[in-house]
Amino acid sequence: MPKMKLGAAFYALFAVGGVGAAVMILRGDSRFAGADQWYLIARATVFALIGVMFGIGAITRRGLMSDQGPRICREGWIVVIALVVAEFVVYAVGQEWGTFPSIVTALIPPWVKRMQEKYYEGRDEAERELNPEEPDGVRPPTA
Fold first, then answer.
1. Which residues, at least 6 apart from 3, have a Cβ–Cβ distance to it below 8 Å?
2. Per residue in 128-143, pLDDT tens?
3. What is the DSSP string of 5-28?
């Protein structure tokens, strides 16, 4: 499968969001006003690492759930799931500070991969319809 284009933009958007959330936590966002220092550092670290993972997916343009490419591109979604689990653990230990973690983060790599597959399937189908003189093996050639 070719490298992503639109999927890389989604990954870049989530990378910026993850790093931006880490910066907001460390700067003392109002939701984390009464939090302990260890909690702020732990939560910001998890958000920054999630942002880095999505940044890797955007830079390589293969995503975090690719069929080919470096290992981080083939199995990076496992790391994202582990980071989301770590986010839940930090939230549970920290009790009442901040916002509840989102499981949606772990669902983004499979969603982007499916979106990419559907895009290329549609593009191939459109090319077959535009070039009917080339038999595709499925339909018999017309007379």
1. 61, 62
2. 888 876 555 666 556 5
3. SHHHHHHHHHHHHHHHHHHHHHHT
